[in-house]
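=== RUN LOG ===
request id: a7f3
mode: sequence -> structure
chains: 1
length: 360
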Amino acid sequence: MEDRQIDLFRRLSESFGPSGFERETASIVISAMEGHGIPCRVNRLGSVTFESRGSSERPLILLPGHIDEVGFCITGIDRKTGFLTFEQLGGWFDQVLLGHRVTIRTTEGDLAGVISATPPHLIPQEERKKVVTKDKMYIDIGTTSREETEGLGVRIGDPVVPESPFSLIRDGRVAMGKAFDDRVGTLVAMEVIKILQGEDHPNTVLGAATTQEEVGCRGAKTIAQEVFPDACLTIEVDISGDVPGTSDKTAPARMGKGVSILTLDSSLIPNQPLKEYVIGVAEGADIPYQLSILPKGGTDAGPIHVSGVGCPSIVLGIPTRHIHSHVGMLDMRDVKAMIDLVAECARGMDEETVSSFTRP
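=== RESULT ===
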């Protein structure tokens, strides 16, 4: 990966953008694309699109990658202590939250906080084995009363994200940070459009940085209604199963082993000719890939593939460890493989090829 691409990934990852509050991340996307002479459009739900038009307006190939991240929303201020209660935006497992730093965005600026954790000295022995649920957690911003907290500008409805700086380890091969789900997909879509810019490909390729995926794929629904895609390659993360407590049955993908081609999830059975086309492109270009499955969970491809009269769709993933937590981990070689594969697939998707996806 080039230094420019890594810096862009860093800025996307560290930006503040939980579901419904994606404007900062969207502005990074717009600035980066327009800096390459590629204009952007923003729709009424905040999703950003950018295109490379080849020799034909159709078929239109959609490359969505969502820019929202899992986060929280302030629901109240404790009257006695000034601590904050919160609700999740997207899916969190209670056990990964306690003791982690967060950032609260108010109209008067950002505030640092921590999801409070009771010291073990004060927890009865029989209680230590129980998981503390989110509804019993608070965010501590260092105040001692409700009045003091309100004086800092905190209000019900303010958004919260994990505090987690981006870093590279293993001699730059492995990235660690927040919001890889799915800022890395956005990065790939952006880089593919930049690569295709000026090439004579036989279609129009449209990148989309979609909003509110983590709360119901809402940005994907509106994008599909807006552009009526002829085929869709959704760019996502996949759950990397090479961690303790997982199995090949539930998470067959492995970090560092190439692009994950999703064969099934709870919202999508991919178009089978399209799946075989992607596999053929990967093998022909010697791009590493692996077949995967996600028994529970869905992506933007769910609503897109049933939009209009239907859209041949598939999900391509980058195996990522520890998603929906403060710190994810992925292999940058998989990111490079994804950029190469999506670009190569897009180059070959002419009208005849796309039509073949839906012929009996």
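=== NOTES ===
The radius of gyration is 21 Å.
The mean pLDDT is 96.
=== END ===
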